TrEMBL record:
Protein name, entry field: Putative glycosyltransferase
Any one GO MF annotation of this record: undecaprenyl-phosphate 4-deoxy-4-formamido-L-arabinose transferase activity
Residue ranges constituting the Glycosyltransferase 2-like domain according to the UniProt record: 13-143
Transmembrane segments: 212-230, 236-257, 269-295
Keywords: Cell membrane, Glycosyltransferase, Lipopolysaccharide biosynthesis, Membrane, Transferase, Transmembrane, Transmembrane helix
Length: 334
């Protein structure tokens, strides 16, 4: 069985976040059609215009007039790439979702390879670049973001992640109630995905313009991911406060013991240092504990589910359950 036969039954929604990309949309559409028309059962393309300042939306409306399978979403203003992706993902109607950038750095011709890998039973398949065609600063900041993602997602998910991905639409059950404006699609997928992998794909240089992800923006994104989806900073503060308190307590006991054993000992710098370390550590520890409770409230409000059901088979919940009647014995003499 070749790759085309293995994905022939797939119905695919391709979600493309768009920002100032009017020049590349025509070519992107043509190449997606060329890649998917002979390969899959049916597909749609969802362009999400994320507050573009050029004629991207006009280009999308023009494409919709010529292609019946294209849908366009025009956001009120620029919300960010992951927010635009979430808008498109929640509107997708097919069983498989593919996300791809609008700059043609990830070739659409690789989409069938992602889908073919998905056939093997994976929930998410990432297209990881063989070599990234970015600047040194962009690569450096991307490595920092990967390190943060490793803390939040775990080593298995983070080492696969890429903005070029294919996943099963059923995974959005895990984040359909998500409400936070600060989001990371990788984190949302990790709430449901169990089997994750990647394949190596080509990565081309940008044909026009430059990436909107500057070093500063990637650092802000890394900070938002770390503070928005992890309690590690709070726990570090708690452990630092606890350690400082223990150190201060030991110093205080040392001063007290010396005072009891040496009648001529006069408490001075050591005593003051012990007091400061003890009480400052206790305050920091208390702040960390309070922060833990606030973080738990934060996680509850963002809509993370306690569980996600993959399959539900057997008796339908919509049909009243019938229990067998048990015959009651009539007491003798009645």
């Amino acid at each position: 069985m070749d790759m085309t036969d293995s994905i022939a039954t797939f119905s695919v929604s391709v979600v493309v976040p768009v920002y100032n990309s009017q020049v590349t949309l025509e070519e992107l559409t043509t190449r997606i059609y060329a890649a998917l028309e002979p390969s899959v059962k049916s597909f749609e393309i969802i362009f999400v215009n994320d507050g573009s300042r050029d004629e991207s939306w006009q280009t999308i409306t023009s494409l919709i007039e010529r292609y019946a399978t294209i849908r366009g979403l025009n956001l009120m203003h620029n919300y960010g790439q992951h927010n635009a992706l979430l808008a498109g993902i929640l509107k997708a109607k097919y069983d498989i979702i593919v996300t791809i950038d609008d700059d043609l750095q990830h070739p659409p011709e690789e989409i069938p390879r992602l889908l073919s890998k998905l056939v093997e039973g994976y929930d998410v398949v990432y297209g990881k670049p063989e070599s990234r065609k970015h600047s040194h600063w962009r690569n450096f900041s991307s490595h920092i973001l990967k390190a943060v993602s490793k803390i939040v997602l775990g080593s298995e998910m983070s080492r696969h992640s890429s903005p070029f991905r294919a996943f099963r639409t059923i995974l959005r059950r895990g984040f359909e109630n998500f409400t936070d404006a600060q989001l990371s699609l990788e984190v949302l997928l990790s709430w449901s995905a169990c089997r994750v992998t990647h394949i190596l794909v080509q990565h081309h240089s940008r044909k026009i313009g430059k990436s909107g992800y500057t070093f500063g923006k990637l650092m802000v994104l890394a900070f938002n991911v770390l503070t928005g989806y992890s309690t590690l900073p709070l726990r570090l503060a708690s452990w630092l406060g606890f350690s400082t308190s223990v150190f201060g307590l030991l110093m205080f006991l040392y001063v007290v013991i010396r005072r009891l054993l040496q009648t001529s000992y006069v408490p001075g710098f050591a005593f003051i240092t012990a007091e400061i370390a003890l009480f400052a550590g206790l305050q920091l520890f208390a702040i960390g504990v309070i922060g833990e409770y606030i973080a738990r409230l934060h996680f509850r409000t963002m809509g993370k589910p306690p569980y996600v059901i993959r399959d539900d088979i057997g008796q339908s919940l919509d049909v009243p359950q019938q229990f067998p009647k048990i015959a009651q014995e009539t007491p003798e003499g009645l």
